[in-house]
Amino acid sequence: QVQLVESGGGLVQPGGSLRLSCAASASLFSLYTMGWYRQAPGKQRELVAYITSGGSTNYADSVKGRFTISRANAKKTVYLQMNSLKSEDTAVYYCNAQYTIVYWGQGTQVTVSL
Q1: What is the rounded distance in angstroms from the CA atom of residue 59 to the CA atom of residue 82?
Q2: Would you say residue 1 has pLDDT above 90?
Q3: CA–CA gap between residue 2 and residue 24 (Å, rounded)
Q4: DSSP symbol at 15
Q5: What is the DSSP string of 21-88?
Q6: Distance from C-alpha of 75 to C-alpha of 70, rounded to nearest angstrom
Q7: Which one of 15, 40, 44, 47 has the fewest beta carbons within 10 angstroms of its own beta carbon?
Q8: Nearest-angstrom CA–CA distance, 99 and 114
């Protein structure tokens, strides 16, 4: 069983920045593909970004050029740096870990508002 604990969410004004962190308990963390998903009220959960064990990354079109995903294997942590935030980025952000099984964190709220 892998536990994922997200942190770093909060309230930020449009144009601002936040950095989300996800700490994993996985002993083989470096082998996992790690991702961030989000779910806004009334909408389906969607992929934001992921990073493979080899460091390859992929982003949703809506966040390209604004968000950066990274990982620190020694710390068993994945990050999501979010810049130039928009109101439409408001959502609960979930950390995701995939290897042989898929695991989810409990989510952290990000609210972009004046």
Answers
A1: 12
A2: no
A3: 7
A4: T
A5: EEEE--TTGGGSEEEEEEE-TTS--EEEEEE-TT--EEE-TTTTTTEEEEEEGGGTEEEEEE-S--GG
A6: 12
A7: 44
A8: 39
Token output for 98 = 């995939």
Encode burial over 91-110: b for 16+ CB neighbours within 10 A, e otherwise: bbbbbbbeeeeebebebbeb
Residue with tokens 């460091």: 55
Which pLDDT does position 99 carry in this prediction? 93
Computed over every residue of the chain, the mean pLDDT equals 97
pLDDT per residue over 3-48, tens digit each?
Answer: 999 999 999 999 999 999 999 998 899 999 999 999 999 999 999 9
Residue found under tokens 């936040």: 18
